[in-house]
Amino acid sequence: MLIVYFSSATGNTKAFVDKLDLPARRIPLRASEDGLVVEEPFVLVCPTYGGGVSLAKRQPKPVPPQVIRFLNDERNRHLLRAVIAGGNTNFGADYGKAGDVIAAKCGVPYVYRFELRGTDEDVAVVRHNLLSHAEDLGLEPLGAERQ
């Protein structure tokens, strides 16, 4: 099982992923860094950018450009099995919007949304559900020692 995530300099998404205690790889923050290419099915964890812009009647761009670059590589996109998105409930209708966009464009389920760094309950629910439904999602199950 693999988690691929993007986290901005705030570190909110990284903090959430770290608490999951599952194998994870980070999409680089800077364009000058080598792009990430994965070789096994994964769940993407992604923050939402530009919260609240739809309320202001502006064009939302909720998916970070680094994630777009990562998913534009067919080698990565075809291994995506599900998406989880972070956000801020202050974003209103745009809360977790990146997950909606990625799920629709890539044809994968949007399985969870969490606020900022996620609560202990968020972490427990996501971890349990990923481990319990790994095969249903097309993920490689973890060995018993990691569960």
UniProtKB/TrEMBL annotation:
<protein>
    <recommendedName>
        <fullName>Protein NrdI</fullName>
    </recommendedName>
</protein>
<dbReference type="InterPro" id="IPR029039">
    <property type="entry name" value="Flavoprotein-like_sf"/>
</dbReference>
<dbReference type="InterPro" id="IPR020852">
    <property type="entry name" value="RNR_Ib_NrdI_bac"/>
</dbReference>
<dbReference type="Pfam" id="PF07972">
    <property type="entry name" value="Flavodoxin_NdrI"/>
</dbReference>
<comment type="similarity">
    <text>Belongs to the NrdI family.</text>
</comment>
<dbReference type="InterPro" id="IPR004465">
    <property type="entry name" value="RNR_NrdI"/>
</dbReference>
<dbReference type="GO" id="GO:0010181">
    <property type="term" value="F:FMN binding"/>
</dbReference>
<comment type="function">
    <text>Probably involved in ribonucleotide reductase function.</text>
</comment>
